Amino acid sequence: MQNTAELGKLVLRTGLAVLLLFHGISKLMNGLDPIAGMLAKAGIPPALAYLALIGEVVAPALILIGLWTRLAACIVIINMTVAIFLVHTGQFFTLSPTGGWALELQAFYFITAIAVVLLGAGRYSVAGGSGKWN
What we know:
- The chain is mainly α and 134 residues long.
- It has five helices and no strands.
- 28% of the residues are buried.
């Protein structure tokens, strides 16, 4: 039973990290201008758009390999909170055209990151599940 729990942590970590990395890679390839514009519109310094790369490239990469996993998942939680309040506030109480919650993807990332914080990286990670932040 222990091996399946460790495998489950690996699957959870990998799913969260890979799916978030797609967003980060898109930002690396297409630039941060849209995020900088949204930040400026909200009265936040546009240079803080680079923090999105930490939340969508660096943190997922750490989660994927299993290094400082809990800390990286905390960064994802912060990133998703900012994204929801900055971009998706108007969708909070709405449904998508197919009937699901309009924010179900953001909620998936947020809730999965919470689970990773609580569970840690597990044995199948660079750090092997040891350490306070893993």
